Structures are given as C-alpha cells and as structure tokens.
Amino acid sequence: MSAWEIIAFVLAGLAAGAYGTLVGVGGGLLIVPLLLFVGFSPKDAAGTSMVVVFANALSGSISFLRRGVVAPGIGTAFALVGLPGVVLGAFLDQLIPRLALALVFGIFLVLMAARLFWNPFAGIRDEPQADSVTPARRGFALVLAVIAGFLASSFGIGGGVVYVPTLTYVLRYPVHVATATSTFAIALTALFGSVSHAYYHDVHWSAAAALAVGAVGGAQLGAALAPRVRSKPLLRLFAVAVLLSGVLLIARAVLRQL
Predict the structure, then answer these.
(1) List of residues 6+ apart from 217 with CB closer than 8 A
(2) Which one of 23, 194, 236, 258 has the largest count of C-beta atoms within 10 Å of its C-beta?
(3) Which is it for the CA torsion 33, 36, 37, 40, positive or negative?
(4) What is the dihedral of CA 181, 182, 187, 192, to 10 degrees?
(5) Who's near 201: CB < 8 A, 6+ residues apart?
(6) Domain residues of the chain, as ranges?
C-alpha cells in the first residue's frame, strides 16, 4: 500500500468509526462498500471489515462503559447467543451465494428505515424503560440476536441494525442505552467473527490495520458526540444507517445478477 492509500484508509476508518459508534451499528456498513469499490471480493470485504468493526466497537465500548450507559448483561447475552450465527455466517460465505436472502433482507431494511425515520417513537414512550418486559419479549430478542450475528458475519454490515431496534422496541431500553449496548455486543461478536474470517483467510491485514487506526479514533469521537444528540434525532441517524445497509444488500444482489 502506498502512503496515500494508507492515509485514505485511516480517514475512511475515522469517518466510519465515528458514525458507527454514534448510532450503535459499528462501521461495517460504510467500510464494506468502500472495500468492494476498491476491488475486494465480497468475502474479503466482509472479513476485513469485521476486524475493523471489532477495533471500532471495542474502543467505543470502553468509552461507553466508563460513562455507565451500557447494559452489560443483555449485551453479553446478545453476543453469546449470536455466536452460532457469527460462525455460520463466516462458514457459509465460503459456500453459498445468498443473493435472494440479500435482496429480501435489503428490501426489509429499506422499509424499516422509512418507518424509523418518519415515526421513530411509534408504539413506544419518548424514553422507553426496560421494565415490565415479558419473558416472550426476552425470548424473541434472543432469537433476533442470533440473526444479528449471522448478518454481521455473513454480510459485514454489523449486527447493530438488529440490536438497536431490538433493545429499543422489544426490550424498551432508552435509545442512548440501546446504541451503547449495541456497540458493546458488536465488540464481542466481532471478535469471534474476526477469528472465523481469519481462519478462512478472508482478511487483508494491511488494509484492516490502516482502517482500524482511524476507526479507533472515530469511536472516541462518536462516543463523545452521542450524549449531545437527543433520542429522536439519534434514531433518525440510525435509520440512515439501516437505509444504507439495505441499499448495500440490494445493490450487491442486483449487481451479481448482471
């Protein structure tokens, strides 16, 4: 890599890390399109992104934990039950081109983004609380965590697109706690996802290192900005992340058919 390429990757990691930490999705939804654009294969883009997402989420988690805005119990539970999905996603990347799944899920994310943007607090209180949550809701949330692990590892878009709405709408956590806890869960799942992708030689380590340097700094910036953004604008920023993830999956499915 040339010096200019290293600088470009560091700056890209900084931007992706700041935004990803702010809205609780990790930086993968911006990093994966960048790597695909510069010529990485889909599985190498996902693997390299996973390493960067781990560095980004770990940095952001440390900051959020210091401020006491993480619910570590549910974050750890999400990460643990999501591990089978993480390993399965990395394994299936070697075998199956899941174009139909990418297209269907991409459309679902676009529709969810529209709903979140226009009416982010529909059906919940302005600051939802994690009380009076039924066992059925908790069980449903853990099922969604498995899906999040699979999506994070297989598509490289980050499990946060599932974690944040699950924590906010299903488990009724406040938005700022949801985004911080999502970042914490992403750090744990991304660690195992990185190991899985490294085992299959899907990681370009020089690019990952340059992006991670920026992403670590970006995480600190995003964590510092988070308390200054009110809940409704924060959910709308998250909706933009969901929209980008959906468009990425749709574009990937369509382009592979051309």
Answers:
(1) 14, 17, 59
(2) 23
(3) positive
(4) 120
(5) none
(6) 3-257
